């Protein structure tokens, strides 16, 4: 593994700790290989400028206790390619996500 591909020990430990703190068991069994398009696109977006962190994939995709709540202030949708500024956010992930009749970023964020 190249040096630039390695993760620092502190970062690795924090990902593990966050995943263990927020993890839960899902009753639904998924088949196939999970798609990580949002994570890859988010990394591209982060390189272009500052962006608030999203939770680690273990937490984001665990399908447990992700509830939509209304925030006091609007924020930018964290799904790459979406330009919406919703008031709705995920209670567990603490990120703003669109949920309209034309775009369901909330579902896309937690399944891809």
Mean pLDDT: 78
Count every helix, treating DSSP H or I runs of 4 or more residues as helices.
4
Roughly what fraction of the amino acids lie in strands? 5-15%
Largest sheet: 2 strands, antiparallel
Share of helix, binned: 25-40%
Number of strands: 2
- Rg calc: 15 Å
Q: Tell me the overall shape.
A: globular
Distance between the termini: 26 Å
List the helices and strands in order.
Answer: HHHEEH
How is the largest sheet built, in terms of strand order?
1-2
Contiguous uncertain segments of 5+ residues:
none
Helices and strands: which structural class?
A: mainly alpha
Structural features, described:
With 112 residues, this protein is mostly helical. The protein has a domain of 60 residues. It is built from four helices and two strands; from the N terminus they run αααββα. Strands 1-2 form a two-stranded antiparallel ribbon. The radius of gyration is 15 Å and the shape is globular. It starts with 8 loop residues before the first helix and ends with a helix. This is PiggyBac transposable element-derived protein 2. It comes from Anabarilius grahami (Kanglang fish).
């Amino acid at each position: 593994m190249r040096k630039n591909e390695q993760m620092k020990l502190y970062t690795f430990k924090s990902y593990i700790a966050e995943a263990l703190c927020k993890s839960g068991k899902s009753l639904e069994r998924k088949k196939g290989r999970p798609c990580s398009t949002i994570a890859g696109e988010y990394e591209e977006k982060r390189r272009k400028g500052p962006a608030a962190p999203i939770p680690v994939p273990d937490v984001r995709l665990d399908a447990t206790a992700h509830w939509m709540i209304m925030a006091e202030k609007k924020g930018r949708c964290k799904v790459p390619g979406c330009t919406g500024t919703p008031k709705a956010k995920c209670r567990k992930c603490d990120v703003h996500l669109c949920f309209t009749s034309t775009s369901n970023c909330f579902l896309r964020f937690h399944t891809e």
